UniProtKB/TrEMBL annotation:
Keyword vocabulary terms for this entry: Oxidoreductase
UniProt protein name: Short-subunit dehydrogenase
InterPro entries tied to this protein: NAD(P)-bd_dom_sf, Sc_DH/Rdtase_CS, SDR_fam
Record Gene3D superfamilies: NAD(P)-binding Rossmann-like Domain
Top-rank taxon: Bacteria
Length: 234
């Protein structure tokens, strides 16, 4: 029986790179994004390159709790994923004391609440099955405060705290929990920045790290994985 991975926000950047890495290993793919045309392109590409796998690409805005619930139900109709990657996120720069009204709610709902509700949607079945691996895509912004990080940094600190709690809760149930704390990775959010592309990490390197962490024996787990550009943070 084939294994499956669910990656939220899977049409671009790190999410897409993780999907490509696991698809190459024969995993069925479940994913979502807000843009229907991007999802259609991803699905067509995966089915052309990996014809033996199943691909379910669903349009959903995970900043909305009701859409998270609907997405969970649609995935459960197919399978309980072996791997869950909470990757959906949004970055809006600004300072806590003067960032635009609504930034806090949007980034917390997108970056943190979506992962909370999605994890709760599958974790009881993982407990019953006594297997699973949950990844949360955090950030070095969740380790070190920096100017103009604002609510984005707050959401990533909170994500790391949630992931640590999950790790403790799920230890007895043979479910692994890993926080990926990535530095500046060249994705669409960095397009237009006046820096050479070589200064950034490659999304494929983050994906390779997720694959490596997944492949440890049942006796070991990567709890936190910090990945930075070779020359340091940007």
């Amino acid at each position: 029986m084939s294994k499956s991975i669910l990656v939220t926000g899977g049409t671009k950047g790190i999410g897409r790179a993780i999907i490509e890495r696991f698809a190459a290993e024969g995993f069925d793919i479940f994913t979502c994004a807000r843009n229907a045309s991007d999802l259609a392109e991803l699905k067509a590409s995966l089915e052309a390159n990996y014809p033996s796998i199943k691909v379910l690409a669903i349009q959903a805005d995970l900043s909305e709790k009701k859409e998270v619930s609907k997405f969970v139900d649609e995935i459960k109709a197919e399978a309980i994923p072996d791997v869950l990657v909470n990757n959906t996120g949004v970055f809006l720069p600004g300072a806590i004391h003067n960032e635009p009204e609504g930034n806090f709610e949007l980034m917390m709902q997108t970056n943190l609440y979506s992962a909370y509700y999605l994890t709760r949607g599958f974790v009881n079945e993982m407990i019953d099955r006594k297997s699973g691996h949950i990844f949360t895509m955090g950030s070095v912004a969740g380790l070190t405060a920096y100017p103009n990080g604002g609510t984005y940094a707050v959401s990533k600190w909170a994500m790391l705290g949630m992931t640590k709690c999950l790790r403790e809760e799920l230890k007895p149930h043979q479910i692994k929990v890993t926080s990926i704390l990535a530095g500046a990775t060249y994705t669409s959010s960095w397009e237009g920045v006046d820096l050479p592309i070589e200064r950034f990490m490659k999304a494929e390197d983050v994906a390779e790290s997720v694959w490596a962490a997944y492949n440890l024996s049942p006796r070991s787990v990567v709890e936190e994985l910090v990945i930075r550009p070779q020359l340091g943070d940007i």
